[in-house]
């Protein structure tokens, strides 16, 4: 079966087309530039951009796959969590396609889709696996016995998400938005051991994260420098901040694997594009005897292929589709992989 997936939970209008674990086509439109001068995503702006981008993005994905709408056997859409207005545009569009073509519709959980997308790159996910999802909106550790039916939250950030911390620190350093890739680049010229920033909750025994203390510590450190009239060593601050984040992320991810006897770790979300996170995760997984799977950066950030990948998994597992009065649920719990 051919599944078309639609993602609109934040600022990306993503459409992907998948058969089994094969990506047939995809297209993405992003409103990120319209948000950059605000230093964060403006919900109303995102919703309007989704509305304008939806039909052309679906058409581009179909064209890339050499398919037409009539070839699509099922539709999948992110039902939550995310920005309410943004989600609503995707869910309404998916309902319209499914209803007008007489095809089943699957409303899915955004984070489960971030896990499922790895199947497009590395084949079927081992059962169980552990997932570390780190983006601008989430930092979560999940135990995944079965991505189609059983995803459990073991830990999450208690304040800022990892990507949010990257974006805020980038603003303190005047690097721009979104900050993750800019810090990643600046950090390459810096010394990760130059400044010791706090590692929140590192040894508290939980699987939770905290990044707001780190963000504040970086801001204070930079302010003190500026007050003293000294230059800010941007590369060293970026590298030291980045090291603090990825040290905690990889430490806790491996701890979940160890504590649960799980041998496979998947990392996803926009921050999974971070070069230092990828390197340190590989190093620590090798030492712990854990196999590491990270999809290519394009599949790590929000996209439609991830929704199609999870949709294809649900269809393959023979699960019932969603009712056509499927709601967009901005705070959908992770226990609900599909509605
Ligand atoms: P959601 O949280 O709902 O998934 P999002 O738009 O924040 O939404 P993504 O598109 O997956 O999610 O990720 C964007 C985030 O990833 C931003 O915070 C960005 O700064 C961060 N990011 C992207 N590339 C890198 C990188 N190389 N290093 C660190 N962070 C990065
Ligand atoms: Mg995004
Ligand atoms: Fe996401």
TrEMBL record:
Keywords annotated in UniProt: Acyltransferase, Cytoplasm, Iron, Metal-binding, Transferase, tRNA processing
Which coenzyme or cofactor does it need? Fe(2+)
The kind of enzyme this is, by top-level EC class, is: transferase
Report the residue ranges that make up the Gcp-like domain in this protein: 23-308
Major location (coarse): cytoplasm
Superkingdom: Bacteria
One annotated GO molecular function is:
iron ion binding
Q: Which GO terms describe its biological process?
A: tRNA threonylcarbamoyladenosine modification
Its localization reads: Cytoplasm
Q: Which reaction does it catalyse?
A: L-threonylcarbamoyladenylate + adenosine(37) in tRNA = N(6)-L-threonylcarbamoyladenosine(37) in tRNA + AMP + H(+)
- NCBIfam families linked to this entry: gcp_kae1 (TIGR00329), T6A_TsaD_YgjD (TIGR03723)
Family, per entry: Belongs to the KAE1 / TsaD family.
The protein here is known as tRNA N6-adenosine threonylcarbamoyltransferase
Organism this protein belongs to = Actinomadura rayongensis
């Amino acid at each position: 079966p051919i599944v078309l997936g639609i993602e609109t939970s934040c600022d990306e209008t993503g459409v992907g087309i998948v058969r089994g674990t094969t990506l047939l086509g995809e297209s993405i439109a992003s409103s990120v530039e319209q948000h950059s001068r605000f230093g964060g995503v403006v919900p109303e702006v995102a919703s309007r951009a989704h509305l304008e981008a939806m039909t052309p993005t679906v058409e581009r994905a179909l064209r890339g796959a050499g398919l037409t709408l009539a070839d699509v056997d099922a539709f999948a859409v992110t039902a939550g969590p995310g920005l309410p207005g943004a989600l609503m545009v995707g869910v309404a569009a998916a309902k319209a396609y499914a209803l007008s073509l007489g095809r089943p519709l699957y409303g899915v959980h955004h984070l489960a889709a971030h896990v499922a997308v790895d199947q497009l790159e590395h084949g079927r996910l081992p059962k169980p696996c552990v997932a570390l999802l780190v983006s601008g909106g989430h930092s979560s550790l999940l135990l995944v016995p079965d991505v189609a039916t059983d995803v459990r939250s073991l830990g999450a950030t208690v304040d800022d998400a990892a990507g949010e911390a990257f974006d805020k620190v980038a603003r303190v350093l005047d690097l721009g938005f979104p900050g993750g890739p800019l810090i990643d680049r600046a950090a390459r010229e810096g010394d990760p051991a130059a400044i010791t920033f706090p590692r929140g909750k590192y040894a508290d025994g939980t699987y939770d994260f905290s990044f707001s203390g780190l963000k504040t510590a970086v801001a204070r450190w930079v302010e003190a420098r500026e007050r003293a009239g000294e230059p800010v060593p941007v590369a060293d601050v970026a590298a030291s901040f980045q090291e603090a984040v990825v040290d905690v992320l990889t430490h806790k991810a491996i701890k979940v694997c160890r504590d649960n006897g799980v041998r496979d770790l998947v990392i996803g979300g926009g921050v999974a594009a971070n070069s230092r996170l990828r390197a340190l995760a590989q190093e620590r997984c090798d030492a712990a005897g854990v196999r590491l799977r990270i999809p290519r950066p394009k599949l790590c950030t929000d996209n439609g292929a991830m929704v199609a990948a999870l949709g294809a998994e649900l269809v393959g597992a023979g699960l019932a589709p969603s009712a056509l009065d499927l709601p967009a649920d901005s705070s959908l719990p992770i226990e609900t992989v599909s509605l």
